Amino acid sequence: MGDEDLQGHIGGNIGYLYGDGIDDDAFAGPEIGIASGPFIAKVAYDIPFNRGLDEGIIATTIGFGFRF
């Protein structure tokens, strides 16, 4: 989807959340994003495994990366 200058993606993510003052748990969910050159932006809806679908968390990422 897109061309070399602007590319979009739809996918899924999975991970684990841990730290002081929070309940440790794994999560998974869908994500959408765009990449333009080395710049990347995405929005994900992370659903912890110990919660319902309507109790997810929206997470955003803006980054800089190199494709190889």
Give a quick rundown of the structure.
The protein is an all-beta fold and about 70 residues long.
What descriptive keywords fit this protein?
0% helix, 68 residues, mainly beta, elongated
Describe the structure.
With 68 residues, this protein is mostly beta strands. It is built from no helices and four strands. It has strands at residues 7-17, 25-36, 39-48, 57-64. A four-stranded antiparallel beta sheet has the order 1-2-3-4, with no helix packed on it. It is elongated, with a radius of gyration of 14 Å. The model has no long low-confidence stretch (mean pLDDT 87).
Low-confidence stretches: none
Number of strands: 4
Name the strands of the widest sheet in spatial order: 1-2-3-4
Molecular shape: elongated
List the helices and strands and how they pair.
Elements: E1 7-17, E2 25-36, E3 39-48, E4 57-64
Antiparallel strand pairs: 1-2, 2-3, 3-4
